[in-house]
Design brief:
The strands form two sheets. The chain has a seven-stranded parallel β-sheet, sandwiched between helices. The protein has a six-stranded parallel β-sheet with strand order 10-9-8-11-12-13, with helices on both faces. The protein is 43% helix and 16% strand. By secondary structure, the chain is α/β, with parallel strands linked by helices. Helix 3 packs across helix 5, helix 4 runs antiparallel to helix 5 and helix 8 packs across helix 12. It folds into two domains: 189 residues, Glycogen Phosphorylase B (Rossmann fold), CATH 3.40.50.2000; 169 residues, Rossmann fold (3-Layer(aba) Sandwich), CATH 3.40.50. Bound molecules: ligand GMT. Ligand GMT binds next to helix 1.
Length: 378
């Protein structure tokens, strides 16, 4: 198959899933062409003459246009790739602008099929916004096939957008060979003393992530036990988290590391992962932590309970309940046997439920069905 992958290039989960999946599909022997505004985060340094290939969506600004048209630029770039490379199927990650752009390109060329994967905020934030409701609904309704990354997201999509097309649930996956425990004391020693608990948060620091709750939880934990916090990623809420850490007097124990693609190293040395988001369709970062045997303390929001099993692979609390989250974190960190059991259960879940060998074939099968005009069995 020749597949075009239309995705965001930043550090957000949808771009990460698009990239990791595209790489797996290429490994399975298919020709994969990424189409994005810049090289996707986790594709940096990968690819070559044998693919996967990258095609840039060019930006165009013109004084008469008060706003840019990312959807039309993406549709234009995709149209060229479809024509030049003979693309069979376009996999659009995120509804607007990517599914809409893919539908445009399908109309222009009359050639490609479109499979859209919904990731979360494309429905829960963008699609729920009156300014985008009709266009998001149209994108979902008119795709040749639609997948969602959790049952929660499939249900919310039906309710919010009032669509009646089949939505197949295909969960996120994790490369369990890469996301492993890192038992190198020298790496851990860069951030924490051996007697300190190392807490971790990884995200794109958007409001939905509630990064201030991360700091609040950490302040409570570190008032009880020696601890450090690694904050990995960047985004609009980073400075608020920094200021709060200063106000709470814990800034000396919080490391803001910025954004980098090989998060597996910091995941592998952490003792606890914090994900207090107020809405999370899946929570890929939590799964990556679980694969590294790191227990997760998270808010019980959206699809998170489909990933983190309360009391087994971590602990869940209500959104904003930082006292309960801190209490749960301390309970795990103070009890070595709970800590080890939760870490091992997380690893087992990653291997038995979210391994690429289980998930990638589901996408390949969805591609095959779309290309042979079969309907998804949902
Ligand atoms: O909000 C983000 O963290 C980024 C966002 C995206 O679309 O780039 O992530 C969403 O997709 C991920 C991959 O499918 C999911 O694991 C995240 O839970 C989801 N984020 C939200 O729903 C907030």
């Amino acid at each position: 198959m020749k597949i075009a992958v239309l995705c965001h290039s930043g550090a957000g989960g949808s771009g990460v899933v698009a990239t990791e999946l595209g790489l797996e599909v290429a490994l399975a022997g298919h020709e994969v062409h990424f189409v994005a505004t810049s090289v996707p985060f986790r594709l940096l340094g990968v690819g070559g003459a044998n693919g996967p290939y990258f095609h840039q969506v060019s930006a165009f600004s013109y004084a008469l246009f008060e706003q840019p048209f990312p959807e039309l630029s993406a549709a234009n770039a995709l149209t060229e790739v479809i024509e030049e490379c003979g693309i069979d199927l376009t996999h659009a990650h995120y509804a607007i602008p990517h599914a809409t752009a893919a539908l445009h390109a399908r109309n222009i060329t009359g050639k490609t099929k479109v499979l859209t994967t919904l990731h979360g905020t494309d429905v829960t934030l963008v699609g729920a916004e009156p300014a985008f409701r009709h266009t998001t609904r149209h994108a979902v309704q008119k795709s040749d096939a639609v997948t969602a990354v959790s049952q929660f997201l499939a249900d919310v999509t039906r309710e919010t957008l009032k669509v009646d097309v089949p939505i197949e649930v295909i969960p996120n996956f994790v490369d369990t060979a890469r996301f492993v425990r890192v038992a190198d004391p020298a790496i851990r020693a860069r951030f924490a003393h051996p007697d300190e608990a190392l807490l971790l948060h990884v995200s794109n620091f958007r409001p939905v992530k509630r990064v201030e709750d991360v700091v609040e939880v950490f302040a409570r934990v570190s008032s009880e036990i020696p601890a450090r916090l690694l904050m990995v990623g960047d985004g609009p809420e980073r400075s608020r988290a920094f200021e709060l850490a200063q106000q709470l007097g814990v800034i000396g124990r919080v490391h803001f590391l910025g954004s980098f693609p090989d998060v597996q190293t910091v995941m592998g040395i952490a003792d606890l992962f914090l994900l207090p988001s107020n809405g999370e369709s899946f929570g890929l970062a939590a799964l990556e932590a679980m694969s590294c045997e790191v227990p997760v303390v998270a808010a019980r929001a959206g699809g998170v309970p489909e990933v983190v099993e309360d009391g087994v692979t971590g602990r869940l609390a209500e959104v904003g309940d930082v006292d309960s989250m801190a209490h749960a974190a301390l309970g795990i960190l103070r009890d070595q046997s709970t800590y080890l059991a939760m870490g091992q259960a997380g690893r087992r879940a990653a291997l038995e439920k979210f391994h690429p060998h289980l998930i990638v074939p589901q996408y390949l099968e969805a591609y095959r069905r779309v290309l042979s005009n079969e309907v998804a069995p949902v």
